């Protein structure tokens, strides 16, 4: 677990005068699931492309599997798997042939590829669909096939860019289960995701990026403990009342956030907050007490403003 699979120090990526990644330090250890979180434009994709050894480093140091991508790119790419955000499957081939042809790209012997294809079809639960054309698959099946394809070369590191975007909850949980099994087998996972529950489910550690910098790092629980409270009380009042009422409940928690449709009171005891709100004669239209989540941390660190 102490061996570094990806080690970056002062890593930078520039496009002309624009610096997308502004000097970050990352250390991904063997066998862990490591996540990159951040809004659009935070630098996640630029970082992942450098880690995949397909985009040159503009500054700093980067070692992948102990190798320098500037000189060892082919050797690195032979030992990693990449699952892109968009499925890039060959729609004119069957499920089985998509895997077989991709395996041959790696120069694997025919017999080995055939055996590997059958293993992966079973692993991603697509054996019964092996003869089907890709265009006949559901979104979840296509995603599982893309993951299977990225595993054809038995990679030491698997890079996943938004692995479950666009999937329904059932399909997402199937993908989560497959990824968890890979981690149990010793595969190092590096992923980007916009789903905070996905990050909480899958990641041992993660970094939150914003404007090309890392603004927080730790396990999901460590981040919640450092940047939020144990619970959040949500108070809904009438339309347009929340700004004025925020001052009346400001002392009930560590902080109060005003949203257009509700107040969020961050506290270690949400039920106590609700009781004291009623003691003060305030009558919310609706109340909810929930535990703090990684989403609370993410929004506090990166803001709620929409980034295009």
What can you tell me about this protein's structure?
The chain has 308 residues and is an alpha/beta fold. It folds into 2 domains: 4-224, Rossmann fold, CATH 3.40.50.300; 229-291, 2-Layer Sandwich (Alpha-Beta Plaits), CATH 3.30.70. The protein contains 11 helices and 13 strands. It has helices at 44-51, 69-77, 95-105, 110-123, 139-150, 169-184, 196-202, 220-227, 242-249, 270-279, 294-302, and strands at 4-15, 18-29, 33-37, 59-64, 80-83, 157-161, 188-192, 205-210, 213-218, 231-236, 255-258, 263-267, 286-291. A 6-stranded mixed sheet has the order 5-6-7-3-8-9, sandwiched between helices. A 4-stranded antiparallel sheet has the order 11-12-10-13. It is globular.
List the helices and strands and how they pair.
Layout: E1 4-15, E2 18-29, E3 33-37, H1 44-51, E4 59-64, H2 69-77, E5 80-83, H3 95-105, H4 110-123, H5 139-150, E6 157-161, H6 169-184, E7 188-192, H7 196-202, E8 205-210, E9 213-218, H8 220-227, E10 231-236, H9 242-249, E11 255-258, E12 263-267, H10 270-279, E13 286-291, H11 294-302
Parallel strand pairs: 3-7, 3-8, 5-6, 6-7
Antiparallel strand pairs: 1-2, 1-4, 8-9, 10-12, 10-13, 11-12
Helix pairs in contact: 3-4, 5-6, 8-11
């Amino acid at each position: 677990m102490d061996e570094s699979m990806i080690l970056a120090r002062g890593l930078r990526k520039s496009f002309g005068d624009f610096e997308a990644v502004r000097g970050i330090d990352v250390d991904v250890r063997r066998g862990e699931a490591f996540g990159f979180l951040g809004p659009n434009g935070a630098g996640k994709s630029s970082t992942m492309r450098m880690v995949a050894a397909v985009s040159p480093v503009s500054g700093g140091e980067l070692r992948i599997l102990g190798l320098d991508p500037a000189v060892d790119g082919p050797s690195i790419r032979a030992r990693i798997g990449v699952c892109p955000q968009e499925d890039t499957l060959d729609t004119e081939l069957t499920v089985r042939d998509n895997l077989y042809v991709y395996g041959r790209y790696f120069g694997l012997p025919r017999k080995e590829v055939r055996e590997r294809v059958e293993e992966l079809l079973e692993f991603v639960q697509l054996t019964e669909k092996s003869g089907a054309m890709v265009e006949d698959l559901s979104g979840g099946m296509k995603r599982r096939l893309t993951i299977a394809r990225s595993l054809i070369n038995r990679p030491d590191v698997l890079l996943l860019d938004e692995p479950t975007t666009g999937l329904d909850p059932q399909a997402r949980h199937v993908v989560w289960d497959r990824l968890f099994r890979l981690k149990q087998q010793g595969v190092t996972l590096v992923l980007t995701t916009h789903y905070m529950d996905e990050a909480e489910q899958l990641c041992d550690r993660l970094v939150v990026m914003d404007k090309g910098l890392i603004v927080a790092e730790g396990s999901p629980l460590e981040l919640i403990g450092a940047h939020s409270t144990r619970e959040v009380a949500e108070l809904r009042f009438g339309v347009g009342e929340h700004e004025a009422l925020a001052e009346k409940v400001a002392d009930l928690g560590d902080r109060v956030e005003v949203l257009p449709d509700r107040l969020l009171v961050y506290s270690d005891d949400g039920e106590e907050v609700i009781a004291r709100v009623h003691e003060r004669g305030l009558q919310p239209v609706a109340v909810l007490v929930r535990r703090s989540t990684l989403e609370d941390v993410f929004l506090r660190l990166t803001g709620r403003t929409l980034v295009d």
